[in-house]
Amino acid sequence: MSASPSRNALAHGIDPTELVYCRGFALHADGRYAEAAEAFRVMLQIAPTDERGWLALGECHEKVGQERVALEIYGAGSVAAEPAPRCLISQFRILYDLGRFTEADTVLSDAESLAADDEQLSIIVSDERRLRP
Amino acid sequence: MIITSEGSRSTVPVSLGQLPVNSASPGAAGQSPSLLPVPQLGTADPLASLLALESISRGIGLNTAIKDINHIRMQKADEWKKQKAELEKAMSAHKKGGFWRKVGKICGTIAKVAAVVASIAVAACSGGAGAPLVLAVAAACLSTAAFAQSEAHILEKLGVSDKVAGWAEFGMSIGSVVCTGGASLCAGGAALTAVQHGVQVGGEVVAVGGGVAAVGQGVSMYEQGRADGAEVDTYAEIAKSKLVDSHLDQLLLTILDELDENEKSYRRAVSNVKSATETAGATLVSAAGRV
Asked: Do A73 and B110 touch (CB under 8 A)?
């Protein structure tokens, strides 16, 4: 019996985290959020300090309308994968949309300080401030 | 090949440095652009990356594969050593209340589940896990439960409502984890297979897919709030002695196989639909010709 593509890719030295993230990303892009979430859960077990896994799993829940679960996941990601400015920005968006403005402002300020050295992130944070004043 | 924000595909290669966020996804929430970074597998397009992986891997013989997997296993052992060190660091922060206090403030529901996960690891004497890994397992519990049931249901079960924004203030602290609840929870979890979304921590299966009831049970025990200072030491001791070995590799391979199988099945379904559509089209053309 021939080995599966994923096993072969692993044996070829492909980083398992990247492999699983790639698989989840493709499923996410296809709109198959439940299956993508499955892949991202696996990714989190392999690499709990990788911000992308938290961000991606949170997005899957947002896509199916589970904002509060997503908020929890982003929150955990912002601690487990610290520094995690993207998780903070995602948290901010949900908190703002839920009307929890004080918390939202605190979270965005945290993101702002983390993004200070990153031009692209700084732009994203500025945009968020403008779009959600 | 990349997918632009307008949904069309472009063949212009984009370096990862230039594109730190995912332009493939239209938006995380409403009209907000997605913050998801693209995978780092050489191309910006995930499907192209997977195809590239498949094509790369065709030439590899089984013997080489086994040799390489063994090599990866050795690397994993080193990673576990690092995780062990991280755990010790986390335990130190634990005593000061830093890490878990922060978790409790930011994501109270996951903190509750994390407490149960930690208690399972202790009670099963199967070793501990680094704090981020405990959080990851807890997040997986919450995520699986939310997909299987509904957000409202699972959050209600965990004692969270819209009106209670500050539920983290229910006196959450890792010191009040009740270790004794773990044994029965683990017994329930052991019946699950990896395919049922099980995850392994330190060699024992922790319920995830079927773990909603277990989580509920654990949370209620947790909320009894029986603080036990010695538990923290026990946790650290067990973690020190048992964390070295894990079956995470095997779990990973099993789940990857499952994902491959899902993908094949999905492709078959798409192909069947396509074929049915073509047949219908041909029938219509043929019928039109006869009229």
From this structure: yes
